[in-house]
Amino acid sequence: MQCVNTVTVPQGLRHRLAETVLTITGPDGAPLADTDVVVEQTRHELGIGNIGFDFVAVANGEKSNADSLFGGARPELAQALTERFFDLFNVATLPFYWRSFEPEEGHPHTERLANAARWIRAHGADVKGHPLAWHTLAPQWLLGRDPEEVERILRARITREASGFRGLVDTWDAINEVVIMPEFTAEDNAITPLAQRLGRVGIVRLAFETARAANPDAFLLLNDFNMSEKYVQLIEDCLEAGVRIDAIGLQSHMHQGYWGEERTQEVLECFSRFGLPLHFTETTLVSGHLMPPEIVDLNDYQIPHWPSTPEGEERQADEIRRHYTTLASHPAVAAITYWGFTDDGAWLGAPVGFARADGTLKPSYAALHDLVKGQWWTPPTTVRTDADGKLRLSGFRGTYRVTAADRSGEVKLDAAADQAETRVGLQ
């Protein structure tokens, strides 16, 4: 039996592989014996994501984002980079910040985000929503309402989005940055008083149970930037209280410098103790000067111009390689989402993108592409089935296309398929 196995496995990534025996059949269900077929990987099991904010205007046919509530790159730049984006990323996060999504009570921008979600899915990527509940960017029109009314309105907002986008957006940051939520003082908002009344576990329960009731198929994350024992305690308390958390979201905005392998491993070991998938939800690495270390809140460092530099770009490419390799090497990591594709319209004006503000690609794009579509990718391979129509497929977990002549079929190489036999019907 011939085997599709042309992958040189990088050290520490064997847990990302699987092997299965495929029986290739034709339209009539009969095995295709002694037939040349092409087997090619089309998708990674590991989520390789980025924000899709840049594409909201593009998907809605808007010529400018000057008045856009969701920000992002200039539409013409985003359009020009579309192919590059989807050649690398298989998940895109869309902005559901409540203040921007529903700037006027009762008038949400549902169709604009639905158009963007459909557009992204048509390009072959999954869509994640961020976030359903958060104190920052809560609507100004909520101010002055009593906590009971705020709770009712928040539940209705979560229900509306989780149910209304079902099938388009099924993965959500259910609630964001709860560790600081009851203590938040940077701006007046109506969610912090509600968190104070319900407690951290109570408001997490509200978000998760409301979203799951609205969409039983939803995959829900608890997301935070706080990597301390306070976040560990919150997760423990929520799980002990019976809150069902599907994955733990870990932010890694490294505007002040790369964490390094040692600290990253410490974070991974700390949060993998719960046995839940880990999603690195918001990763950034700058290609210019680093934010000063004395800055406590990253939002406090906003300067007129933060340029990308040749030296910074080489550093960023090296750190991208190291960071993604470290994360992929840990079996608990299920997804890695970067927070910015271009420097144009980037958060805080920081040069964190894979593309410069003029649309040209930085070395970091090639560095990540070499990992995702090079070292971690099973290339197209022609192999001949045996007398029973069988062949052995060994490669990185993900989705594969099998083609013979003008017919093709699809198979998932995952934990369920590992060391099993799978039939692939070509149509």
From TrEMBL:
It catalyses: Endohydrolysis of (1->4)-beta-D-xylosidic linkages in xylans. It comes from the Bacteria. Its EC number is 3.2.1.8. Residues 71-371 form the GH10 domain. Coiled coil: none annotated. InterPro entries: GH, GH10, GH10_dom. The keyword Iron-sulfur does not apply. The keyword Hydrolase applies. It is an enzyme of class 3 (hydrolase). It holds the Pfam family Glyco_hydro_10. Keywords: Carbohydrate metabolism, Glycosidase, Hydrolase, Polysaccharide degradation, Signal, Xylan degradation. One of its GO terms (biological process) is xylan catabolic process. One of its GO terms (molecular function) is endo-1,4-beta-xylanase activity. Belongs to the glycosyl hydrolase 10 (cellulase F) family. This is Beta-xylanase. It comes from Actinomyces glycerinitolerans.
